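TICKET: design request
STATUS: open
ATTACHED STRUCTURE:
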């Protein structure tokens, strides 16, 4: 880089362009900028040492005492540095702290970003080695991703809006290691639509199994965080679920997922009858009114009731919760008759978590789902389609519970 004491700019430019074209790191091993960065960092450390060795330090006999060597991993490669030391070992550098081997939050953010997209620690380590010529152990990578934990806890406790127009509640299931055994874990997710028509993941909670009792504690947590009212809640057909909602939010209209009911029904229909049964069932849930739906259900009962009494009985037993959506307009019906909205969110989360076997802990599970959710929510920037019309209809139906800001 130097010729007869002069800085060789042309050589630097040539090497820089060559490495840019080849995709090599400019700052890593043999990088064009590596000597420059090394000189800047070492000069900065020397400057910090000069400031540290003030008159008082020197009067007490403190002096420079040679240099240490350390390897510093950065987002652009690994650099070998010579760091100054003093006789009293009282020098505490700030630009590169003692025992600091990874420089720049940018590398940490890259690691957390890769982890949040589902890459394993082993794959991340290999990727960093390939891209930045830097080796980072799995233990170091784990400690870096653990920096997300305070963010998860802060997010879980954050205040919520007082009113949500529509809320979907559903669960996902995973394996977690506990005391040498692999156990089942249930992740409860709550997805809401606020008064502006924007989707928001209100919370996620981990339990040993799905049950109405745990959902009750989840709903109580929402209340503690500021939610005072939910207009419509969309749920699966878990026993006691609607009663749990009524305990915390007694004015909330509850809609049980029709698609879940259909799936459960088909499980008890012989394969040869499934197609004709579905053709006769469709007029029930696609009716224009609850009265017409009841009439169609009676016809379904007449034709199939004797052969499949358990299925028909299930529809009649859950009828009130299955037919809440009939009292609303078509736009609102499409949103609430199924839990597809939150199931779509779950599908995106599973794309990230599907490569994992059993998680090492509940927090490791939450940590990854949190990062996946943060990436998914970046796309939730716009209100739902035709929300202005939908929210106007909701305000008419629910009156003073939904006051529009005009």
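STATUS: resolved
RESOLUTION: sequence designed for all positions
ATTACHED SEQUENCE:
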């Amino acid at each position: 880089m130097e010729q007869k004491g002069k800085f060789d700019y042309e050589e630097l430019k040539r090497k820089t362009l060559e490495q840019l074209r080849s995709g090599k790191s400019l700052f890593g091993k043999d990088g064009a900028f590596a000597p420059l960065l090394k000189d800047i960092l070492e000069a900065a450390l020397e400057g910090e040492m000069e400031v540290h060795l003030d008159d008082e330090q020197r009067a007490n006999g403190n002096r420079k005492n040679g240099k240490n060597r350390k390897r510093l991993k950065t987002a652009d490669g690994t650099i070998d540095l010579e760091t100054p030391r003093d006789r009293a070992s009282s020098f505490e550098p700030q630009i590169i702290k003692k025992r600091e081997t990874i420089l720049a939050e940018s590398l940490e953010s890259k690691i957390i970003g890769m982890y949040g997209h589902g890459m394993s620690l082993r794959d991340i380590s290999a990727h960093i080695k390939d891209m930045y010529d830097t080796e980072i152990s799995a233990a170091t990578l784990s400690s870096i991703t653990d920096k997300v934990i305070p963010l998860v806890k802060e997010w879980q406790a954050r205040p919520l809006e007082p009113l949500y127009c529509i809320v979907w509640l559903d669960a996902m299931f995973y394996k977690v290691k506990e005391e040498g055994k692999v156990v089942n874990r249930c992740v409860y997710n709550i997805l809401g639509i606020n008064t502006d028509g924007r989707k928001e993941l209100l919370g996620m909670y981990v339990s040993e199994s799905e049950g109405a009792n745990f959902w009750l504690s989840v709903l109580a947590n929402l209340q503690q965080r500021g939610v005072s009212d939910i207009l419509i809640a969309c749920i699966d057909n878990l026993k006691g679920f609607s009663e749990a909602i009524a305990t915390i939010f007694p004015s909330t209209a509850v809609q049980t997922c029709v698609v879940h009911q259909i799936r459960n029904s088909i499980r008890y229909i012989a394969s040869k009858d499934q197609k004709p049964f579905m053709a006769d069932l469709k007029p029930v849930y696609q009716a224009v009114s609850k009265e017409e739906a009841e009439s169609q259900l009676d016809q379904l009962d007449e034709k199939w009731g004797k052969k499949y009494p358990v299925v028909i009985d299930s529809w009649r037993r859950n009828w009130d919760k299955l037919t809440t959506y009939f009292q609303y307009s078509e736009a609102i019906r499409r949103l609430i008759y199924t839990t597809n909205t939150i199931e779509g969110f779950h599908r995106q989360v599973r794309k990230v978590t599907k490569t994992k076997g059993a998680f090492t802990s509940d927090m490791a599970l939450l940590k990854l789902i949190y990062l996946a959710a943060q990436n998914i929510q970046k796309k939730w920037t716009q209100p739902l389609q035709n929300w202005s019309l939908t929210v106007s209809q909701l305000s008419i139906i629910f009156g003073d519970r939904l006051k529009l800001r005009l």
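CLOSING REMARK: The chain has 18 helices and nine strands. The chain has three domains: 18-103, 105-157, 164-399.
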